[in-house]
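Record ABC transporter substrate-binding protein, 489 aa.
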Amino acid sequence: MRNRKAIWLALPLAVALSLSACSSGGNSSSSPGPSEGASTSPSESASQNESTKPAENVTITVLNEGAVSIGVGKLDDLLPVRKKALLADEGQTPRVQESDFSWTAGNAVHPGVFSYFYQQIINDQLKSKNITVQVEDWGWGEPLIQKETAGFLAKNIPDIIVGETQMPGFALQGLLEPFPEDMASEIRETVAPAAWKPMEVDGKIYGFASQPGVNSLFWNKKLVKEAGIDPDQAPKDWDELLANIEKVTEAGKGKFYGGGVYAGPNAGGYLRYGPLLIINGGGFADASGQPAFNSDANLKVIELLRNMNKNHPAGLMVNQQEGPYFDAFKKQQTAYIIDGPWRAAESVSLGIEYGMSPIPLSEGGAPGNITIGAAFHSVPKDAKNKEAAFEYIRAMYSDEVQTLIADTGLRSTVKKAIAEAPDYQSKHPDMYLHYQAMNGNVQGLPTFSKEDSKVWQTFGDAVTKAIMTNGDIKGIMDEAQVKAEAIVK
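=>
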């Protein structure tokens, strides 16, 4: 796909990196219902059957999302401070000017002011409803999960919490308030599934992400061309993808490799090669949420991963740390990679001419994906200001916020009407591809019923063994299945 215009050529890496996935562990799901005996909120019936009407002069507490954070405190106080800091920052490339704060819908947005406008739009919408937003920062990843878990236990929790892989698990435990029915219906009709489908349990929606990521296939056009492959043509299926990868490795003669997908035994790996399982009709869990590691569909994927592994420097594909794998692509040492949408902007920043396409399908496979880098916002059952909190989430999928996301071009809008407008594809071809990938069978990582981390580690260790050895893949995964079933029994 074509590169960005001049402003994107100067886009700093920090912007792209701030939007990348924050893998905190494989502990989320979208299939089984909440655990039996979960507590219910007194206002649950009203919140589901009546249109939410915010109270006057309400202050809601909202946890920070790093990609759009402008500080800690009241948004009213933070916005002028943020603007002043942006104007004074001489290190921003390109530097923010006063004119950059005159953005109007349909025009390019300076990447440095995106978070400012994002919060300003939400703040203005809520102020008109007499709602004040107080932002708190509980960190991200494991520290955030620990604090949220403690907050639930103490019944001292913000009005809106945020997170990635842990959020569907909270819904399953009955800790989150379901979205009001009118709101849920509107979201289903107007918003791409990746923004809410992983947070749907038993027909109710429990969370929303304003700019979620899903995986696509990227490739380095220069390296692909050196292997005699048409750099503008995406592989049509898994066989062609593997053949191209092998051609690049052969052409690289040890200087560069074909690559493929990160497959480390951690959430970063599961989030990247998980879509291959879904495409091929497999997955991490069955319909009842039980481990399903040794299915025939999964075995075919693991065989593909084993073959891809031969087209990497030794140990890179299953490295415990994901950073070195992505560094290899950034240093133009690997040609193909499956990753989230930030790979496009980051490649532009690094001067890498790249291609982007949906992940190719296996023979008989169907499109499928896993959310990655998706910051889901939810209202806890113990929140003090639920109606006002839902107004904040409504603002997140408003036309104003979603138009801003579309105009920034770092992630795709989730609003169907905006993404499917005639000029969106021509202005943002890569993000239009990403929008298409956000539709259909989009899932989150599952949560297992007992000792979740142990079950995941059993799976990850087995896949690593199957990739790194010549052992019988079926035998390795059968053994892992037995261990996993014993853990959750």
